[in-house]
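Troubleshooting log. The previous run stalled partway through. Resubmitting the same two chains, unchanged.
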Amino acid sequence: MKQHPPRLAQRLFSWYCRNHLHESILGDLDEQFYQNLDKYGLLRAKWNYWLEVLRFVNRFTLKRERFYKSYHPYSYGMLKNTIISSLRFFRKHLGFTTINIFGLTLGLSSFLLIILFVQHEQSFDQFHANKEEVYRVNFAYQDNAGNTTALVNSPPALAPGICGKFPELDKISRLRYTMNCILAREEVQYYESKGYYADSLFLEVLPFEMQIGDPATALDQPNSIVITESLARKYFNDPEPLGATLHFNGATPLKVTGVLADLPSNSHLDFDFLISFSNYIVPEGYASDLSSWSWLGFLTYVSLKPETDPQRFEASLTQHFRDLNPEAENHLLPIVQSVPDIYLGSSGMSDDLASPIRTGNRLNVKALFLVAMLILLIAGFNFSNLSQALSVNRTRTVGVLKVLGAEKKSIIVQLLTESLLLTFGCLLLAVSFVLLIFPYISQYMGWQFDLDWAAMLGVLPVLLLAGVLIGILAGLYPALRLAKRDIMASLKGTTSIWNRSPFQFKYLLLTLQFAMSIGLICATFVMTKQINYLRNTNTGYQAESVVLIKMLPEDMSRFFELYKEQLATEPSVMDVSRSERVVGEPWPFSVIRKVGEDPELSKRIFFNQVDYDYFATLDIPMHSGRSFSLDHLNDPTQAIVINKTAVEYLGLEDPIGQQVHFFELDGPRTIVGVVEDFNYTSLHQEIGPAAVMLPFIDLEFMYVRFDQGQIASQVALLEDTWESIAGSIPLQWSFLDEGLADLYQTEQKLSGMIQFFSLLAIVLACLGLYGMVSFALSQRIKEVGLRKVLGATHSSLYMLFVRTYFFQSLVAMILVIPIIHSLLSAWLEDYAYRVNIGWWIYPAATCLLVAMILMTISMQIVKTAKVNPTELLRYE
Amino acid sequence: MRLHLGEFEEVVLLLVAVHHEDAYGLSIRNSIEEKLNRKVTLSSVHTALYRLEEKGFLESEVGGVTKERGGRRKRLFKITSLGKEALEASRASRDLLWSLIPKISFEGL
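Second attempt completed without errors. Output:
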């Protein structure tokens, strides 16, 4: 046997020396070995070889360089080369590339849109410089029976009462809603509904941006008004009307002492003007005054000293209330809520005044965010699937690259670069697309914010991250597979590099995508069902053909009788009435107890002040007893009508004629009638125990029921009649049912978005599937030919390709049911009146998906199956 | 450019010139051993060669496959004009110093 140099030593050398010197040194070593072998024998030669190998470790041999001249993958030349070869590849597979780019762009655009919306929802009240220190004091009221109502409101005595008493308290300020009012400058007069009476400190507690005027003093003087810039333009046609005068409700002159920049769209408070608090006079007939600690009719904002724990402040406030009124302990519980939390965190609380406060819903935001992520995932999966499928065509290219000396690493880098470039191209397209369509989309969705650069910059990191992730994840797997492949097999390019096991990566992705589509279809189903239910549920009253008129309480008391009398003579007018609260708005509550019962047993009850004919006007049937009537002279002070729920609630056997104490201060009232339950607020809330009585204060809302079908043609007479009796005072009217539809605006918006984006997701899924199937067919075209030659029928071929998708849809359905069911149940929980989800929707949604799948792929399969097998087999 | 040569470097450089067209690591090592009767390792010769190449005194190309080398090519070195200059400078400085030695210095040695 011929002696050989020590192989281990050779390997050691090859391991540490990997540059151009390797070959010649190893040659020299071997040559020396054979010399030594002749001279000294094997052992010495081997020993010497080992020693030399160890001595050769130096900076020349250790230097890592390539055998050939290699360029950095991101050098100009290589990048150019990568781009050119990618573009050639794309051009060669134009159809698939278009699908790929289109799908990803669509997905990224939707993602971007939703993220913009979510970002806006979460940005509420973040613009206040002192947002960490400002809180609103809400109150929860608990009656003796343990019923709790959480309100955003607080009593008027709170702010002056605790000011200076707590060391952690910095500033405190109250707001009182002005209700609907008229502002006038000479002849220019409008109804305004977005205003508050505000304590002088208000603009320091919540420092809204002020254009002119001093926030510290603007509201100090009585008869001051601070208006927003757009209101200034509306009345004065001048953005800086400092010192000008506006007349409030036709009487009080107010001096403009400041102009605010228009409130940002992400402020939970949404007002146009602030009037000095000293102008607020408690209306006549109210049972409370400004020293009340229990009248929850105000909004209180506090700014605490930095580093104060709001929990501790809340605790000391609770203690304060306990000290104040020991016997009524636990009845009013203060809740301190940080201002940035108000918008999304107040969905369980109602506003006793129905003042213009924007509220969002955290769950909706989460749901949308989830949809955004799902869409991104679907788009990413599609992109990844198609890239992977397309990469099959690259085997030969990669083989040639390898023959020419490309290393694994450079191939991986090149393929990844291509994938990233494509992703970022799509990202750019998506951003420009969103910029282009944003105005239309936001109008369609009812979004009330503008797309500005700040918003775009805010989502940029997320977007870039998404782009990088998609680019790398989609590119990495095919790149690794291709780079690792044997050169000869790559060059032959005959066998597929993907095995056909059903647990392949891309089938997993496809199944997940199906699962998401099924989930989104289900969500769309249920949401649409719920919203239709809300719209069509019998509320217990008829809002059609009813016109709602809002007026100032003073005008109401001056003109109502005359107006009603004149309208009643018109044949098309059926009934006219008025009330304190309009249906749909939450009712205030008070306490009620049977005469003779312990005042401690008083129960909470919702109430409304209404006029004669109220039930007739809104077409609410009486259950028993009678409605208020002019024939009974004592009705205004001694009669009360309760709803059916209240009968059970109060435990009344035979309610008609029973005497109750309502409001404590009031004398006993007789229950004269029981009215059928009707849903006086929105369907979010259950019908509570409610009572109505004739008015003891001036009312704001008036209803006119017209004969059915005549409403559109007859509304003009409302204005004419009004003008003849009230002169220049404007009339503000609307159709009641239209206003009620706004109650479900949030739901409608959400459902609109979910529907829109679900549709998009399904389109994306089908698009991806289309690409996949076209690709699979082109890969298996010879198989189809062979099968046909061997006697396969069209239908058996069809089934061959379709059955995988059936199976996957089934798996997807099973995967998705638990997740989507719990999500939808959580969403429905928000509604007192809700639909059943129903188990049938899951198979139904799956069937729908399968139908979509079949529609997408059938044409292609049939087309392929119909071709003459000789043509298919001639493929090469 | 520093034209200074170390002693071993100079020997290697000279031998590259000696082995015209056949100057590679092992041949130079063998010459050193045979002609100068000095024991050197292959790796030190190689290192010197690379250092000289780095300095620009040598250039190399590959070629000359033989069976004993396992089919591997040799790295053949050739002296450059810079290398020649360096050798000449070294020799000149030595000559200069030789010429400066007074005869008396070696007397009696």
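Takeaways: The mean pLDDT of chain A is 84. The interface with chain B takes residues 5, 21, 23-32, 34-35, 51-52, 55-56, 58, 60 of chain A (CB under 8 Å).
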